[in-house]
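Researcher: Can you fold this with coenzyme A in place?
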Amino acid sequence: MIKNMQAILDLMDRPSTGSGPGEYYLDTLAVLPEYRRRGIGRALLEDGIKRGIAAGYDLITLVVDSNMPDLIRLYESVGFQKAEHRWIFRVDFLRMTYSVKRQNAKL
Ligand SMILES: CC(C)(COP(=O)(O)OP(=O)(O)OC[C@H]1O[C@@H](n2cnc3c(N)ncnc32)[C@H](O)[C@@H]1OP(=O)(O)O)[C@@H](O)C(=O)NCCC(=O)NCCS
């Protein structure tokens, strides 16, 4: 499991591959089915945010299938906000953004 988690963290650590310049893009959040609903997904997400901040980015982004409201709520619960819709491979994805300045202002 540790090996799998490291592989996922390594994937998440790639800056700005699938998004715009200057964004820390969180790509492909996933947990093996047998380990889901134990808080690992949230922990990976929070770790990704910390890595983006540590790397000096002001904007952290991701895309999520628009038809997954529970997942969208998970992202909102850690500070992401809904941005615009994007059609990727004929699927309606929602781009979400985490502004480091906006979050700091709330503290
Ligand atoms: C999305 C994913 C990474 C979540 O991982 P996880 O370890 O199960 O997430 P957590 O246990 O931290 O869940 C946190 C919250 O997210 C929500 N949530 C997570 N997975 C959910 C699901 N499949 N359906 C509905 N809500 C879900 C719940 O609100 C959950 O809190 P709760 O368990 O207290 O109700 C995992 O389900 C997964 O790998 N899915 C397949 C890949 C995928 O769709 N990735 C998203 C790409 S945008």
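Model: Folded with coenzyme A in place. The two ends are 34 Å apart (CA to CA).
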